[in-house]
């Protein structure tokens, strides 16, 4: 048995966020639902697919304590469609559930929670606390460079490296590398690799406020992100991460400073000619204070020139269009620096000011006209 009264809005928001960790398909049927645990006027909602778990609580008025598992899609939609205000959830011993509010009443079946696995017990060996806005930016400015293939599973996550009071978050997929650096308050050195799926879910839940903090708790095989009433649990990826430091060039022969917005607009226009069937690199020529960009596929051709502050030898170089757009969209400065050592070597993209963000991208070999 279980019965409680709660705010429709609070319950619906919690359901949407927790459901992101619910298994689409599982040999354990209850994992395809959200677990409700009611005790002492606190309702705990849990979604868990054995790799990532999301848990949160809301305050309710309790009449009978208990547990049950609900279908996330159906239940969330029912709650969304209910009238505004408070709603009552009543689960009988036979698991029949009544959802009522205003003049509306739904009757559905729930599942027994007895087979729902517990989140693993967690004893943290290391922890670090930082503003949610900082962690969110670090994830968003790097996670798109995580590998999407299974040949090296460790690269399907991001490296968190804490050393001498500095945290680096690193993603690499074999074609590009993103490194986001931030000074933090931590007197221990440690590192771990978090799956990108977990980080995407954490980023969605993090706030943009500098006042809100997030604690990251790390054990040998697990990590927990604890913030704003949410607990996100995840396994860690095991293995040796790529030695990324040796991949980053220390010097360059050609440096270009260019307006970020103009470059994004130019690349987005070129991307209209590129799709899965029509793939081609964008050809970039840096010389005489300008960037000449062109791209040609079976759909058509584009040629465009935009001003740029160039120094060093002329360079003609080709890139995957999306691989250039991804970092430009997350760099906050109005201008960016492009550092190169020739047409066949990686290009380094940096904000105009500071070195908190480094993005490295391999060029694409260009065909001779």
Largest sheet strand order: 14-11-12-13-26-25-24-18-22
Structural class: alpha+beta
Number of helices: 6
Q: What fraction, in percent, of the residue positions are helical? A: 10-25%
Taking the sheet with the most strands, its summary is: 9 strands, antiparallel
Low-confidence blocks of residues:
none
Distance N terminus to C terminus? 75 Å
User: How many extended strands?
Assistant: 26
Mean pLDDT: 94
Query: What general form does the structure show?
Result: elongated
Q: What fraction strand?
A: 35-45%
Radius of gyration: 25 Å
Can you put this structure into words, describing what you see?
By secondary structure, the protein is of the alpha+beta class. The chain is 17% helix and 43% strand. The chain has six helices and 26 strands. The protein has helices at residues 8-18, 72-81, 132-140, 196-205, 260-271, 321-330, and strands at residues 2-7, 34-39, 42-48, 52-59, 61-64, 66-70, 86-91, 96-101, 104-109, 126-131, 157-163, 166-172, 176-183, 190-195, 213-218, 222-227, 230-235, 254-259, 282-287, 290-297, 300-307, 309-311, 315-319, 335-340, 347-351, 357-361. The chain has a nine-stranded antiparallel beta sheet. It is elongated and about 75 Å long. It starts with a strand and ends in an 8-residue tail after the last strand. The model has no long low-confidence stretch (mean pLDDT 94).
Question: Short description, anyone?
Answer:
The chain is built from six helices and 26 strands.
Q: What are the main properties of this structure?
A:
alpha+beta; 369 residues; 6 helices; nine-stranded antiparallel β-sheet; 17% helix
